[in-house]
Design brief:
The protein has 236 residues and is of the alpha+beta class. 31% of the residues lie in helices and 20% in strands. It folds into 2 domains: 7-42, no CATH class; 55-231, tt1808, chain A. Helix 4 (87-107) packs across helix 6.
Length: 236
Amino acid sequence: MPRSGEFGELDVARDESMTERADEAGMMGDVPLPAILRAEHTMSMPAMVKKRWSADEARALNEANPRHWPRYEVIDGELLVSPAPRSFHQDAVLTLARRLSDYTDYTGVGHTMIGPADLELEPDSTVSPDLFVTKLVNGRKPRNWKEVDELWLAIEVLSPSTARYDRVVKRAYFARNQVPEYWVVDLDARLVERWRAGEDRPEVAFGTLAWAPVAGVEQLTLSLVNLFHEVHGEEE
């Protein structure tokens, strides 16, 4: 075996030897010698294998973190990691939750809940919407996460770090699991992207947003202008 540093010398010697033999045989002329393929020219790095996460692994990460942040979710084997949100993100969640909770309690059409949550709408997934309205279970609110298998509405309040999750990954997840409506609340643009199941484009709401999960039930009318004023601490 050659020692460290000898490989280059061996290659040069081999090249010179071949050149000398070609000259002696009268074979050189203007024809270039074939390139010598060395090991470093033919080796390639193995492709990186992306880990597929399970819902149980994400739950274990959440259980090991008593502060609830970052929050771990899994969709299609992808681990979604959400850092602690901005303070007015939480203000928006609570403000919306109060309005929705008053409405669902009054109409009796569902139960309003806020995250963190552990919803598994399809096998080996776990998601935690900021806010959601679940259907009742035999006329009562769910007693545990396993009983939450149908939603009327899911809401995410947009954060810069979770925009892709909210607008792409989670939107597709809720759509294929037949959640009738999914709202993405953009606090900076002061609008709500309202996605309905089966539609390819959202309704973009700026002024008011009316919602009724069941036909014939009094609808909830939200003033988004007032909502954003309240969240941002502004006078109307």
